[in-house]
Amino acid sequence: MSQNEERYSGSTVVQALAVHPGGGWLFVGGPHGVHRIALGDDGRPEAPAEWTAGRRPYGVAVHPAGGYVYLTDADPARRMLGWQPLDRSGRPGHGTGWQAVTLTRRPGALVAHPTRACLYIANEDESAPVSWLHLDTDGRPQDGETVLTWLGGPRHKSLAVHPHGTHLYVGDPQARALGVLRLRDDGGADGDGPLPLWKLPTPPGPLTVHPRARCVYFTEQGTGTVHRLPLAADGTFGQEAAPERMRDAAVRDCTGVAVHPKGTYLYASSDITLTVIELDPATGHLKGPPIPMPLPHRAH
User: Which residues contact 114 (CB under 8 A, 6 or more apart)?
Assistant: First the structure.
């Protein structure tokens, strides 16, 4: 088994799951590349997974306009951000493959701003834990990264962005906490630095934000138990906020969580399964039982 085919390192938060902003596709990173799963109008998976061969990713994100899919390479010997053009249907463009740019630090989790042409990358570098990377007008990464230095602290963080682009949420499993940064209109971080950490009873793994119901979802590292944490109207964690465990929702060795743009379904992935959880779009609470679906495996 090659290094690329081994399981993810337990020390790094993986976020290899993203929904196309148009709502028609789910991108799921796996041992041999990225699966693409067609979604119905309501967000329910409709067809067997297609996949694009490639390297195992630590992070997967989609351009806010839907024209590119991005991934960070899980190989510890590489510091790569890969990208691939998508056609209007959300499939890779005909005859196009993965392109890559070398980053200055080894990247982990990855998330795209919902309205601005930029990415946020969780670095495995304690002195520079999160980078802000601009994208060209056509969606290609620009050279150079801006480090959000005041995040500080332990490495291996998870990331999510408020659907209005106003806040960046940072999960810190070593500190058992979530942090919040206010974002400027251009996607950069507010110069006042992060708001106080919100302490959690368990170390957070991947996280995501509901597009309508003002709540964050995160999974526990290891057990994969899914929690819902309400947000205040201003996008921060309210004084009385407390994580709510979602009944029977757990994805062990979780590799990503995401919510459909309509707020109808929560998706949670592992190397072998995709779990689909129906949500109340208005409240973000669980509406139906979690349904695990096997992901296809490439023959060795």
Answer: 21, 64, 161, 162, 163, 164, 165
